[in-house]
Amino acid sequence: EDQRALRILLVEDNEVNRFQVVSYLRETMCELDIAEDGEVGVGVFKSGTYDLVLMDIQMPVMDGYTATREIRKWESENGMEPTPIIALTAYALKEEEEQSLEAGCTAHISNPVKKAPFLEAIHDHTRGVTA
Fold first, then answer.
1. What backbone phi and psi angles, to 5 degrees, belong to 3?
2. What CA–CA distance (Å, rounded) separates 22 from 94?
3. Strands 30-35 and 107-110: what pairing?
4. 16, 24, 27, 83: which is closest to 56 by C-alpha?
5. Using one digit for the tens of pLDDT, what is the confidence trace for 102-131?
């Protein structure tokens, strides 16, 4: 059984949302890196190895759709397996969910995020979170 900590990249400009994610993951075996916007997030992603990316969609500088497309392009250029990317969005609209999936996101959670479904989504798209 692989007990290595999950490496998660959170790309989120909202401090309250960042704090919430940090608090949800505090009791888990996760290593969390944080980027404040999409452009920074893409750079951080390229310089590390992540099991999962949590991508806010509405951000200044570079939004989550663009950042996700950049990550997908970089992965395919480098012959890498796609990393699961979960879109975090303030709107639970069907078209927004479709837009994030179209951009290359694996799944979609709307804010405010509840702890149980949040951890479940991470579990579903990685080899599991060990609390």
1. -100, 15
2. 27
3. unpaired
4. 16
5. 999 999 888 778 899 899 999 889 865 554
- pTM score: 0.89
Alpha carbon distance 43, 78 (integer Å): 15
In SS3 terms, the chain reads as: CCCCCEEEEEECCCHHHHHHHHHHHCCCCEEEEEECCHHHHHHHHHHCCCCEEEEECCCCCCCHHHHHHHHHHHHHHCCCCCCCEEEEECCCCHHHHHHHHHHCCCEEEECCCCHHHHHHHHHHHCCCCCC
In degrees, to the nearest 5, what angle opens at C-alpha 32 toward C-alphas 64 and 30? 125
